[in-house]
């Protein structure tokens, strides 16, 4: 379930991101942290998290006919295959390099959490495979969950889906929203302090800025309250502008982003700079945050839960991490079904996204009750839904 808009990250991102995941690029540098609005992980932890979040590059199969086009501004049909001026191949508006070459091989990897028995869903046989931004999508052969909470994609969409109530309050408690925003602020503060720290963190900045823009959009609709809520639209617009052009190494972009971040910091502190542009009143999620970048945050959430709470002992001691990451996973899954991304009327796509939303809720419930077996099963549902979605949308 990926999407890319005109304002995409550089075409070389998929290749360079592999370097991030193998540790060849260091985290960001910097000096003083941003004073948090609430307790939040350090910037170093955020940078480490994002190092594992970026998807591996994959080569999509070449279709019988692929149109070459530089007209990236026009809307594409969901199943239209084409290449942009740089030779990057797309299916609709989704770049094909986000998919695995052999999705079924990935799906068959039943590596258990924490070295325990495989955490497959006994009702479906879906193994607990790792979800990546290139692994999030469905195959007709993926099986169907017969549990009441996981009905068919079409019935899920009919009962609510993207057009139903978003329930941001339920999906993302205000505490988790504010903590995530603080984590992103700390990361950006360190990453933008010098050209060197910017260069080493450059590929991690776009998904952070996109997540911040999406969270600010949610904050505008959330019933909870934070000190910066009245200025959420201005912060959203500043985060959007961070991703308005492809980032390049060097002082020019570092200075541009630093200026945006400093204006953002003043706005967070209720000292909005005079002359700051009025944010567009009609900006939607898709206008401020690319789907592909939000998918990277979803991948990061799944990986962090598996890596830091993959055994029963770790699960018991990492309740707060599980609660937070599950909330972000479910929230971003709901965001990508919103109007503007092009899938809000696609019952199948919305249905798979809803399965992830439901599984994320089950993970939170398992963390509250301390049920590791329920947690394992819910994680396997997330992985299964992601794999099914990508298989269906890539192969068809």
Features of this protein?
single chain, 396 residues, mainly alpha, four-stranded mixed sheet, globular
Question: Could you give a short description of this structure?
Answer:
With 396 residues, the chain is an all-alpha fold. It has 16 helices and four strands.
Tell me what the structure shows.
With 396 residues, the chain is mostly helical. Helix content is 50%, strand content 3%. The chain is built from 16 helices and four strands. Strands 1-2-3-4 form a four-stranded mixed beta sheet, with no helix packed on it. The longest helix has 24 residues, at 372-395. The chain is globular and about 50 Å long. Mean pLDDT is 74; it is low at 1-32, 35-70 and 102-164.
Mean pLDDT: 74
Largest sheet: 4 strands, mixed
The strand count comes to 4
| N-to-C SSE string, H for helix and E for strand | HHEEEEHHHHHHHHHHHHHH
Strand order in the largest sheet: 1-2-3-4
